[in-house]
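We recall that each integer encodes one residue's backbone shape. We quote one record:
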Amino acid sequence: MAAAKKLKKTLKAVWKFLWNDNSVWSWLINAGLAFVIIKFLVYPGLGLALQTNHPVVAVISDSMQHQSEFGTWWKTMGPFYTKRNITEAQFTSFRMNGGFNKGDIIILKGKKPGKIDVGDVIVFDGNRPEPIIHRVVGKWESGGTNYFSTKGDRNSEQRDEEKEIKEDRIVGTAWLRVPYVGYVKIIFTDIIKAVRG
């Protein structure tokens, strides 16, 4: 009985420290707990629900950003897509047809490669440390394997690494955009790079 009372008293003190104390230590421990909960509970739970190992990515480049309204953007970029039999009307029906910005968070869903279509935005492993998030502009099947080609909406041409993407390099497809929240990661990463020199 005494042990149960002592445990209850200790738990109350810890709770008060975490939620009511405004000390630096309380803030640091709360930040650490938030990190642990997100990293080891929320992120894996989202991954399981969305069927991908990387359910959330921060956009770290402006390669998908449209810098003007759609009609003006299409006049400049449209010829690339029309050469690939993608019409303006088709493009306007694509998910995220207005692109997205550096600093946005994109929530991904796992999708079987056979179900990925031209116009979908995918995240794939490229020749760099960070995955790439671009729009599918071509797909084909060879020897039972699906292949894709992509392009950033803002880029005038494709990069070599995105002309033939094998299905096993795909991390997921873009499902939902959360504007500008990714700047937290970008700023934190920039600070770490600056500290490391």
Summary: The mean pLDDT is 87. The chain has two domains: 2-50, 56-196. The longest helix spans residues 24-50. The radius of gyration is 22 Å.
